[in-house]
Amino acid sequence: MTEDSVFELARKQIYWMIAGVLITITVIALVFLFSSYQRQLVEVPEELRAELISLRFVNTPECFTYQDPVTNRVFPGVIDVNKFTQERLDSCYRTENERGFKDFNFALELEGYAPIVDGEKKLLRTNNFFNKVDFTLFKEVYVRTGDSLEPTRMVIHVQTRI
Q1: Residue 151: what pLDDT?
Q2: What contacts 115, CB < 8 A, 6 or more positions away?
Q3: Contact present, 78 and 65 (Cβ < 8 Å)
Q4: What is the mean pLDDT of the chain?
Q5: Which residues, given as ranges, of the chain have pLDDT below 50?
Q6: Which region, left, alpha or beta, applies to residue 96 given φ > 0 means left and ψ of -120 to 50 means alpha?
Q7: What confidence tens digit (pLDDT) does each residue in 80-102 have?
Q8: CB of 62 within 8 A of CB of 122?
Q9: 3-state secondary structure string, the chain?
């Protein structure tokens, strides 16, 4: 073996070591890039998740929606003013006491029909709502009082987590 061939062999080994390190770094960077891109594609916005959860307040008879006592027909978007109470909200949507602050929590207001306690309007609140409003949703609804229907709006204050 001549001196030139030894030098060439050493130079090739150094080249392939450097190339191996650079190829490895490139592959790892591409894996992180694709995984973050995939995470962004399947991520559901907080507003949409809260909107879907809050649909229960205006569409299910277990919450506030009016249900005809004779036919048992449910009228989505029609709020029975007699059902709009804190007790009803507690039975309709409740989060865990210890970890519920990480879930969606709501404060509800039915414009023009808020319960009055000690001379001031009171919002209906879920058990872990701590007056931190991240965003607000608005639902156009009808309120049934007796035999009449009146249009109004339900304001839903959303707390995502504390």
Answers
A1: 92
A2: 84, 85, 86, 121, 122, 124
A3: yes
A4: 86
A5: none
A6: beta
A7: 988 888 899 989 988 887 776 77
A8: no
A9: CCHHHHHHHHHHHHHHHHHHHHHHHHHHHHHHHHHHHHHHHHCCCHHHHHHHHHHHHHHCCCCCEEECCCCCCEEEEEEECCCCCHHHHHHHCCCCCCCHHHCCEEEEEECCCCCEECCEECCEECCCCCCCCCEEEEEEEEEEECCEEEEEEEEEEEECCC
Q: What pLDDT was estimated at residue 6?
A: 63
Inter-residue contact 158 to 104 (CB < 8 Å): yes
pLDDT of residue 44: 83
The amino acid sitting at 92 is: C
pTM of the model: 0.71
Burial class of residue 35 in the structure, from the number of CB atoms within 10 Å of its CB (0-12 exposed, 13-18 middle, 19+ buried)? exposed
